[in-house]
Amino acid sequence: MQADSWATGKRMALLRFLLGTGILYTLTNERCESNVTIRATSRTQIRGYHSSLLLTVKLRYWNWMLDWEDVTKAPVWDPENGFGGNGDPDVGESIVKGHCVTDGPFAMLEVLYLKSELKPHCLSRGFESGTALAQLGQGLRPQVLEDLLAMGDYETFNLGLEDGPHISIPRSIRGDFSLFTAPYDPVFFLHHTQLDRLWWKWQQRDLRNRMWQYRGLAAHNSTERASLEDIILMNNLGPDIKVSEIISTESELLCYRY
After folding, report:
1. pTM over 0.70
2. What sign for the dihedral angle of Cα 123, 129, 133, 135?
């Protein structure tokens, strides 16, 4: 199923904004550790934050291209140096084919919502396996990503990213990661930082022609075309922002590079 072009509009831009405002996760594993240096000028804390905070941090990503043959065996799931592993089918109720994570730093972490329903439960994962997992891994192969990075059109690139790795990872992990409340699982941020990194790499290959490319449908089920002047609504998490303010990771609002 082809992804809706809404992703070509505001989703990637919003992702870039969230990643660029100071989220930090630390791993010691080489596959999960970024060489990114970020100077994040945080100006949009919970509404009413009035001062600027200059930070120098490293933002980690999960380079799942190294793990495409079986993402469930990636070092990111290590219980000591990573984020814990698969759910235990003998513990807790089933959540989207997942069960309670019982090892690592987030073992038995209680999360409050299931989609939009208040339903306290443990953080759940349920790794896919067999042929289904192998098929999902095809979208993470280095050559597939290289072919995407070679595409000169943003909409084609982004829909390829959406239909491939963006959906492959949550469908491989399942559990809470399968829902729009996926940020309950901290690996969500490692995954999406990698997506942002790939977007940045795509821009860097031809800055003159790619940096300001931004097109597709402006919103889900909309017929309007996306524009750099589109407003990203922050829903009281901070001031609303224009896409043009964050199309570059080195903008005044973000100020980071990979």
Report:
1. yes
2. negative
